[in-house]
Write a structure and sequence with these properties.
Distance between the termini: 28 Å
Number of helices: 18
Shape: globular
Radius of gyration: 25 Å
Structural class: alpha/beta
Number of strands: 16
Length: about 475
């Protein structure tokens, strides 16, 4: 990301709409508006629906800022500059669970419905227009609002289908996890890619015929027509704002019907089957809580391999924000539902394979930042993770330590658990590997590697005697 001499950093994901652009100045998030976008903003602030959505925390808090705070676009000063609230941790839709994507979709449609009622629309329909405050979705793309033009359809419909509706249908109707599909292409799933999976009786499943097959056919028929020609055809056919509202409400009704409750997995029952004794569990919880609370209050804690969120909740009692990472989408979905029902705004659950984390994507590979680029945590929790990476995924111990250090902010701490080779869980993993494959998987080797990257301030061997916890200040 380029940094100007004034310390202004353009947001790599904000370049597709030339009417407005997002910048970072220190911890501030700013948006430059061209004259037309500035006019739309002034009309938006004079509406009834927009301030109400901001007050309800459904749209990110936004205010006017001095236009001189960000550089001019192509030599022309911005007509206005906005200051947005800062989202604690930016995530991507392919890191969300099914219920997270569905709740984000419903919020987007609620906002669109409210906007249409007062003569506004959103020109985008992308899932990337939403972020999270813990388990609470929030709409962030203020530049997407514009006055609606009678006789025109929702400009964001295709984006909404590709980044929201098709992924939801893929999982709800076929039981296929959508995350790898969205990760593969920043613009989402094309109708042509999904249509072959919905033939025969599957065509009759909710939303498939209308939003996949008919929508795809219309796209093909109008491929050679200009946008203006398509709009003229719709006006001539009597397309109205009332019909647009009915369409949006129909999509909302469909999204509410889409459900996915997967069967239990190995990880969904991990807390019962992981082999901790009651004494181990109490000692581990006390060590983790004390380790997070040591020193200055952490702004961000990463809980890697969070499972049901037990330690994320402990960390949240001593930190501003916790990102709870877990590989199993079903486990993340269950955790999200619980956090959402609790009104939790300081724990964000995400779907992420620790051995294959989200890379950079989109234009030039930086439009959507990879997980490592977004993670700079004051505390990293790596509890019962190292043996799964080192033995289960064949990642060398030095690589594991380097990776943990790379996720930690300067002077931050890593709280890590080493499962000894004789522990039942490690023995089970080793039984599936060729003998002698991991000669360096030993406690003394691990401690040496950890001490080489930081200063071990605390250690605790759990009462069972086969697991050791460490708190290490990285770079110390």
């Amino acid at each position: 990301m380029a940094i100007s001499p004034t310390g202004v950093r353009p947001e790599p994901a904000s370049f597709r709409d030339p009417a407005n652009r997002v910048f970072h100045v220190g911890d501030e998030v700013l948006r430059g508006l061209d004259p037309q976008a500035a006019q739309h903003w002034r009309a938006l602030t004079g509406s009834t629906f927009f301030p109400a959505l901001v007050a309800a925390r459904k749209v990110c808090a936004t205010e006017d800022a001095p236009p001189t705070l960000v550089p001019a676009a192509t030599g022309t000063p911005w007509a206005a500059v906005l200051r947005h609230e800062r989202i604690p941790f930016v995530s991507h839709p392919y890191e969300w669970s099914f219920s997270m994507l569905r709740d984000a979709a419903l919020l987007h449609l609620e906002i669109l419905n409210a906007a249409l009622g007062e003569g506004f629309t959103t020109k985008d329909g992308s899932a990337y227009n939403l972020q999270w405050r813990g388990a609470e979705p929030v709409f962030i793309d203020i530049g997407s609002f514009e006055p609606v033009r009678d006789g025109e359809p929702w400009a964001g419909y295709r984006q909404f289908c590709q980044t929201v509706l098709y992924p939801l249908m893929l999982t709800a109707h076929l039981g296929v996890d959508f995350q790898p599909w969205l990760r593969a292409r920043v613009d989402g799933i094309e109708a042509d890619e999904l249509r072959p999976l919905f033939t025969g009786a599957r065509r009759l499943r909710p939303g498939v015929l209308t939003h996949l097959h008919l929508h795809g056919a219309m796209q093909q028929r109008n491929a050679a027509a200009s946008t203006t020609e398509v709009r003229d055809q719709l006006r001539a056919a009597g397309f109205s704002r009332e019909l647009l509202l009915a369409t949006v409400r129909g999509i909302e009704k469909l999204v509410r019907k889409l459900e996915h409750r997967p069967a239990g997995t190995h990880w969904s029952d991990y807390q019962r089957t992981c082999g901790y004794t009651a004494r181990d569990r109490v000692a581990k919880e006390q060590f983790v809580a004390a380790s997070v609370a040591a020193g200055a209050r952490p702004r961000l804690v990463l809980d890697l391999g969070a499972n049901d969120g037990r330690y994320s909740r402990l960390a949240a009692g001593h930190a501003d924000y916790v990102v709870a990472v877990e590989q199993d989408p079903a486990v993340v979905d269950e955790l999200y539902r619980k956090l959402r029902s609790e009104g939790q705004r300081r724990i964000l659950p995400l779907v992420l394979d620790l051995a294959d984390p989200s890379p950079g994507g989109g234009w030039r590979g930086v439009e959507r930042a990879g997980f490592a680029e977004r993670a700079s945590a004051d505390v990293v929790l790596a509890l019962a993770v190292v043996h799964h990476l080192a033995i289960g995924r064949n990642v060398p111990l030095p690589e594991v330590i380097d990776w943990l250090a790379g996720l930690t902010a300067p002077g931050g701490a890593v709280v890590v658990e080493f499962v000894h080779p004789e522990d039942p869980m490690a023995t089970r993993l080793l039984a599936n590997k060729p003998a002698g494959l991991f000669p360096d998987y030993r406690r003394d080797t691990f401690e040496t590697l950890l001490a080489a990257r930081g200063r071990i301030t605390d250690r605790l061997e759990l009462p069972s005697g086969t697991r050791t916890l460490y708190r290490t200040v990285m770079g110390g």
